[in-house]
Amino acid sequence: MHTSQYQMAEPTDKSLQWLEQMQLIRTYELHLAAMQSKGVPGTCTSVGQEACAVGVMAALDKRDRILTNHRSAAHLLARGASPGRLLAEVLGRIDGYCGGFSGSLHISAKELGVILTSTIVGGELSMAPGVALAQKMGQGEAGGIVTVFFGDGAACEGIFHEALNLAVQWQLPLLFVCENNQWQAFVHRLETMPDNAIINWARGHGLMVDTVDGNDVHAVFESATQAVSAIRSDSMPRFLELCTYRQRGHFEPDDQAYVDRQELAHWLERDPIKRLCQRLLQQGMLTQQSLNNMQQAIDEQIQAAQAFADASPWPDAAMLTRHVYA
Amino acid sequence: MHTSQYQMAEPTDKSLQWLEQMQLIRTYELHLAAMQSKGVPGTCTSVGQEACAVGVMAALDKRDRILTNHRSAAHLLARGASPGRLLAEVLGRIDGYCGGFSGSLHISAKELGVILTSTIVGGELSMAPGVALAQKMGQGEAGGIVTVFFGDGAACEGIFHEALNLAVQWQLPLLFVCENNQWQAFVHRLETMPDNAIINWARGHGLMVDTVDGNDVHAVFESATQAVSAIRSDSMPRFLELCTYRQRGHFEPDDQAYVDRQELAHWLERDPIKRLCQRLLQQGMLTQQSLNNMQQAIDEQIQAAQAFADASPWPDAAMLTRHVYA
Amino acid sequence: MEMMTVEQAIYQALAEEMQRDNRVIAMGEGIATKQLQLVEAFGKERVRNTPLAEAVVAGTAVGAAASGLRPVIDMLFAPFLSYAMDALVNSAGKLRQISGGQFEFPLVTLAMTGSGWCVGGQHNHNLEAAFVHMPGLKVLMPSTPADFKGLLKSAIRDNNPVLLFTDLGLLHSQGEVPRDTDYLVPLAKAAIRRIGTDVTLVSYAKTVAVCELAATQLAEQGIEAEVIDLRCLKPLDETTVLASVRKTGRLVCVHEASGLCGMAAELSALVAEKAFESLRAPVMRVTGADATPPASWMLEQVGVPSVQNIMGAVIDQVAIKTMPAAYRLS
Amino acid sequence: MEMMTVEQAIYQALAEEMQRDNRVIAMGEGIATKQLQLVEAFGKERVRNTPLAEAVVAGTAVGAAASGLRPVIDMLFAPFLSYAMDALVNSAGKLRQISGGQFEFPLVTLAMTGSGWCVGGQHNHNLEAAFVHMPGLKVLMPSTPADFKGLLKSAIRDNNPVLLFTDLGLLHSQGEVPRDTDYLVPLAKAAIRRIGTDVTLVSYAKTVAVCELAATQLAEQGIEAEVIDLRCLKPLDETTVLASVRKTGRLVCVHEASGLCGMAAELSALVAEKAFESLRAPVMRVTGADATPPASWMLEQVGVPSVQNIMGAVIDQVAIKTMPAAYRLS
Ligand SMILES: Cc1ncc(C[n+]2csc(CCOP(=O)(O)OP(=O)(O)O)c2C)c(N)n1
Ligand SMILES: Cc1ncc(C[n+]2csc(CCOP(=O)(O)OP(=O)(O)O)c2C)c(N)n1
Ligand SMILES: [Mg+2]
Ligand SMILES: [Mg+2]
Predict the structure, then answer these.
(1) pLDDT for A249-265, tens place per residue?
(2) In this structure, is residue B9 part of a structural domain?
(3) Where in chain C are the domains?
(4) ipTM tops the 0.90 cut
(5) Ligand 1 test: best mutation among A157, A184, A248, most atoms within 8 Å of CB?
(6) Of C2, C154, C204, C287, which is the most exposed, with the fewest CB atoms less than 10 Å away?
(7) Within an 8 Å CB–CB cutoff, is residue A6 touching chain C?
(8) What is the per-residue pLDDT across D242-279, written as a single tens digit (0 to 9) for each?
(9) 3.10.310.30, 3.40.50.920, 3.40.50.970, 3.40.30.10: which CATH number matches D191-327?
(10) Do the beta carbons of residue A143 and residue A63 sit within 8 Å?
(11) Taking CB atoms and an 8 Å cutoff, what residues of chain D touch C136?
(12) By the 8 A CB rule, do B315 and B92 touch?
């Protein structure tokens, strides 16, 4: 387990910016979860995994492209997505990133470089080498790399290995980021694979790998930065396993009756936002007051986002058959 | 690389019997290849890989079940299949093991324990855990285990990893035998995977693995025997990689224009039958005369097989829709 | 009789069959988490959570089925079957015939599909026709809790690979279900849900109820529609469909799946071949578009066959005055 | 014009398009081994041998297509597509619509299928209709070398995912092919292979020639058959089919694939909906059985539509005297 050596070297504004992003993600997700009772379609939230998204995105550039999956809100928000357009998408309205056609499960935002999101577990892994191949063959922005986010469950799908092998064999500029949140829908990781399986599997493919505390945004950033700059310099793939925890159910609403309370408590102790706050408070970079202000601004942002989404019209019936073909 | 420590410990009759089986396989395959010009459907021959089939089968019992693939003649013959019924199957006649419906590519012979042959690369790997699960849950003969044969190419398919992981997780009595013959149809192994990839991939799954000289029947037998008895005792899967070479083309006829002549020559030097003969001649277990006699008997057996197959009728048109459902 | 949902009927059927025959096992991603009563009754050996690896889960079921077990696998949503195609189509569907009849594959695959949950086109994709097109498989898509129970039980006892699709919109719908542990609905037998004389509406799954509603409203306009619920799409109950069309002379086929090469096309072709002389009007299809199912609630609503669409098709048919060429010729 | 085989026409088309547009790349298991001239002309970066991993090969093509390349992938035999279903159906077919039109997928998938090589049901399985049923895809299955060239070139220039199926029985068949490097056959346009007035035979791939033979023999009996070669199954050229049936009043649909939910069913339903009033006789289907294709040479022969089957269907149709109900009513 790679634990961050970070102490005070980071510029203040970056850490605070990360905290703000993580708070935004959490607030957005909790808002959506609370909206369940009001008939909003179910979603897979990334509560507890905010440091993974924020830490990796901070290591990436605008020219880089990202693939993600069903649990994508954190990735999108960390990449700068508008909460209003995200909410509109979840609600199926025309101002959503996909015009309401996607709903929450496969949101792409090409303008942000978040492309080809698939909710088929492993779908993102199947397409990522192709995006990286296009990059390598001169189709992306110069110097760009490709990052694919996926879960520990996806690592059980054969496509995981096929993608790793192809990326290694074809020397693709591709960063594999496995957010190991211990859960695969309603099944615990330890019921489907040996302990430490993911990193052992990845290592078997002969690429450089790292396992990182996914609840420490600085650790994630540091490891991702190393991997990204290595990929930029030699165009070879890298693999990161971010150890984290899915704090809420698989898909809202979910009573988590099947979740071991001790394990959950253990991970709640290690909550990434709580830890970052503590660190920043300790270091004097943050005060309780500035934290409250930050939260209040975010709450207002989410309220505005909801108002935006509510005001967005439903798509026209003609959309049913628009965009079937290019 | 596991090289056989075998010197003289094996009983004479077993070695001779293995030689005879290997000769039978080779003669059968060369006969089929020669028949191409007479309009016999193409086949994937196992010339050069005879020691793999014979060595592993010698380690198995009648109660064990076997899954194989498109390159199955060696496995079937080593398991005691009738050359006549095999030829009849390749020719599409009713006395074939599958009534002529299969042809050469997916021959099963349940009576011999060779079941669920698939010519979809990886198909055998997908089904093998299920056969082993049934065995474990009391559906097979007591104490039986399951063996699945597949190629180095199949190890590139995601299903390879899915099957290994399931077998490990569910503790299935399953022996994985990868015949790494260096070729994946028209593509050399080194074009599709890192060197030593297969054993590294398998090791990543945390089961016991061995890499063996697949052109040394004694080495194969020894390693397979260890693996089989281990599986019988603890019901955990094992993995063997048998390093060998596909001496002929992928699918007859095939001019092998794409094959590196030096590599081929290197492996022809290490031909499994030649090596076994040399060893047995040296050890005085075999004379040139007895070898000639053996070959003559086999030639006669193949002639009889061909006559049997030729005499076998074509299936009736009604077979087109027989056995669609049970 | 007992009131229960489709979901409950499915698990009652499964539990009864697991009780009856210890070769029946259940596997799926989360089945052992969500169906605790099954785990309690039959243990973790027979009720298995699986890794996320649909290809090997389906393949394992195929291998196990050929080797004496009778697996039921829960593949969750129909599009996830895309990973299980080799096992289901190339192995389960073909290896019996390829082997000259050496193997049987008593194997049931469960999958959900259909509109109603706003989950979008990678969870909601009605794939039943694609499987009907494949040899060696049987395909069920029932509409009532009782049929789910009776058909699933028959499927588990059948010696062939059967796919049972659950229309998402029905999962929590309620109905009376016989308590009988031997309550079997035969495969390949359609149900006539309403008797009529003027037009035959053939459907299955969620849209059966829509057809029944349409029929009620048509009756108010003096048009008596017969409503047939196929239940089992393969083998197809040709007899019931043909008998009805021979009586009514008109056929409207309704389903949520895309029309192109779908079940409605098959029914239309069947009737064109075998009951052409009975037809008084063109066979009409009311189906989903040849497009990806949307997530947006509003689009989901308008994308599926409605009472209005069905009534429109019937009224058009009844109004048709053009004489077919066969008339002009004679 | 130049004489060449279907196989040569395919690789000529590919080479020309790779020459014309350096975003076109080719991937497949052995393509760089077998098509050495492509490797020589365009290098190993653009002509890539792949591992045996159809799922990621197809997925890679999808990802590359969305990112500016124009991949052509050779998946060898159609049943191997079973591993590529997620990439082709859930990604290439759906992600354009799901994303609200953000992506284009200019991607061509090649696969072989059909009887003639005695390779059996895991190599020979005609799956075209299953893909026609899926949204967002286009499906080609030509019958002549010229069409293979012209359609493949159009497909490579198209911005959508296209599957091109090669009937094994045609691979080495010869024909005249235009030398023109801009020779394009438009997608969605059927070809009328023979003009006739009494019956329309619609087919594609290898069985077009069988229909032409049947038409020749029918002409000797005074029955003039029109023969339509669909070439492109999706989008379907409804206009050409309907115009012909409106003229002849009779339709026989012929293909080697299974009939259930196949293209013949779609054509029958199309005509029943849109040209019913022209029909003088039941639409007939002459198709492969709902069964696994056999390897045995003898079974392969009898399992595919023959001149006799087709003639039989036509002669039955022409003989039909039963009046449709529409007549009795008037
Ligand atoms: C092929 C496939 N199988 C099953 C599902 C249903 N499903 C959606 S998310 C999920 C769990 C995925 O686990 P993991 O990859 O660890 O991601 P996480 O949800 O934990 O972020 C499952 C089973 C799916 N969407 N696709
Ligand atoms: C899924 C699939 N892809 C491709 C093929 C075509 N094919 C048949 S055998 C073969 C090579 C397999 O290589 P390997 O697994 O090493 O076995 P070998 O032929 O060397 O014994 C290929 C590509 C196939 N039958 N199935
Ligand atoms: Mg997870
Ligand atoms: Mg090989």
Answers:
(1) 999 999 999 999 999 99
(2) no
(3) 2-177, 191-327
(4) yes
(5) A184
(6) C2
(7) no
(8) 999 999 999 999 999 999 999 999 999 999 999 999 99
(9) 3.40.50.920
(10) yes
(11) 291-292
(12) yes
